[in-house]
Amino acid sequence: METFLTYLQVFAVGGTICLIGQVIINTTKVTSARILVGYLLLGVVLETAGVYKYIRDFGKAGATVPIIGFGSNLARGAIDGALESGILGAVTGGIEAVAAGIAAVIFFAFIVGLVATPKTK
Amino acid sequence: MNEPNEAYLKLIKEKMPKSKHLLTMFRAFWTGGTICCIGQAFTDLYTFLFSELGEKDVAALTTITLIFITAVLTGFGIYDKIGAYAGAGSIVPITGFANSVVSPAVEHKREGVVFGLCANMFSVAGPVIVFGISSSVVVGLIVILFKGAFGG
Amino acid sequence: MKNHTVFFKSGVFIEDTATIVGPKEAEGPLGRYFDKSVSDDLLGQKSHEKAEIRLHISAIRYLLNKTGHKDGDVDLCISGDLLDEIVGASLTMREFDIPFMGVYNACATFAESLILASSLIDGGNFDRIICSTSSHFCTAERQYRFPLELGNQRTPLSQWTATGVGATMLNRVKGKIRIDCATIGRVVDYGVRDANDMGACMAPAARETLLSHFEGSSRDVDYYDMILTGDLGEAGSGLLRLLMEEKGVRLGEKYRDCGVLLFNRVAQDVGQGGSGAACSSSVFNGYVYKKMMCGELKRVLLIPTGALCSKTSTLQGETVPGIAHAVSFTV
Question: Which of B9, B15, B69, B7 is nearest to B38 (CA)?
Answer without folding.
Answer: B69
